[in-house]
Amino acid sequence: MFAAEGKNGVILCGREFQNSLDDSSFAEVREAIRSDPWLITQYEIGRQYIRHVSGRVEYVFSGLRHNIESLKGKARILLAWIDEAEQVSETSWQTLIPTVREPGSEVFITWNPASPKSDTHKRFRSDATPDMKIVELNWRDNVWFPEVLEDERKRDLIARPDDYDHIWEGGFKTNLQGSYYAANLNQAKEEGRIGSVPHDPALPVKTYWDLGLDDATSVWFAQEIGREVRLIKYREWNQTSLMNVAAEVMAMNYTYADHIMPHDVRVREMTTGRSREEVLRSLLGRLSIAPMLSVEDGINALRVLFSRLWIDETECADGLDALRNYAKRYDDKRKTFEEKPYHNWASHGADSARMLAVSYKEKVDRGERERYGSGKRRAGGRGSAWAA
Question: Which of 128, 275, 251, 258 is nearest to 206 (CA)?
Answer without folding.
Answer: 258
